[in-house]
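[SOLVED] Predicted holo structure with zinc ion

Edit: marking solved, answer below. Original request kept for reference. I posted the sequence and ligand SMILES and asked for the 3D complex as structure tokens.
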Amino acid sequence: MLNEASIFARVDELAEEMVEFLRQLVRIPTVNPPGENYADCANLIGAKLKEFGYETEFVTAEGLPECSPQFPRVNVIGRMHGQRAKPVLHFNGHLDVVPAGEGWTVDPFAAVVRDGRIYGRGVTDQKAGIAASMFAIEAIRRAGVKLVGSVEQSATVDEESGGFAGVAYLAANGHFRREAIDYVVITEPLDYDRICLGHRGVYWFEVLTRGRIAHGSMPFLGASAIDRMARFIASIEQELKPKLALRRTRMPVVPEAARSATINVNAISGGQPIDAQQTPCVADVCRAVFDRRFLLEESFDNVRREVLELLSQLQTADEEFRYELKDLMIVHPTMTAPESKLVTTMASAITSSVGRQAPLIASPGTYDQKHFARIAGIEQCIAYGPGILNLAHQPDEYCEIEHLILSCKAMALGAIRLLGVT
Ligand SMILES: [Zn+2]
């Protein structure tokens, strides 16, 4: 019988090395957009995976418009065979980070360590997760324990901009397949003591309204595209929003207010550019972008139909009402079953490491789970990693070293319990 305390002791021994590796990752500013230094970061991770006994493969998302010679989209995958080929546990983390932005009191790419915390852009979201999963498996290896099943680790690009050159590309090109991968742990920061089962759906769409230009001193001679957009937005406020607020999902989304369906106006632009010299004109075009978040219990077809119905009602009231609807992005909701082996095993591992029961949650926003679920068809996928969710994308982002270590221990135990040891 394996002594799990000995694995924890190995993680503690490796902690300093793990922190140093994480600091190296943070010092490579993999800022997205535009997608800087991906190759350097993938190479660093690939070299470490090799040192830790993995076979590595680098996959560049050739053929995608965002993959250019200046900003190549380089992903790295490591595979380590156990005594048997299956089951396979796959850890995935994204190596891109959002721009540093304003308001930092430390250099965002210096990886400063202070008061038990590592500071830097992307520490929490989510380079700490990449370090934790790599050192979790290394702790098992250095303890001389042999896993029965196999482990894979991937560090992928562009999660912050939709993951199309990262997880989506790898899934679409057969690198991530349901036949080859049993369990996926995405090491996003949902707090070190919680498991995220999935996320709501997203429908981004653009509405364009047309009007008829006329002199601004005689607006009755024209028709304002902005007035028409205002009517559409008013119908969202008055008709759609009350309906959405009443729809509740059974998914354990946090915060609780996000258990309803929601809609937000993301951008609006109409008439003349606001900073330009103005001439008196009735606006002939107005465009707005909307962000509708939908629930597991809603069908996408119905979500879209509701938008079209509002628009066609406006057309009935004003037969000159002209509009165009353009779909910008569709992400379907996804949730792994709470009773699945991956969830119950990781929950028990977190309890052993952290000392209390792990709440099961779902995310109001989306992350790469959609691609593992929808493209690769993998059913058992969760997000679990160190780092504090509310610090993601903030100035002075940091990760508590203690959380890094506790989640590393939970991942190591989870791997042992999912894959078995000889
Ligand atoms: Zn993230």
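OP edit: The mean pLDDT is 96. Thanks to everyone who chimed in.
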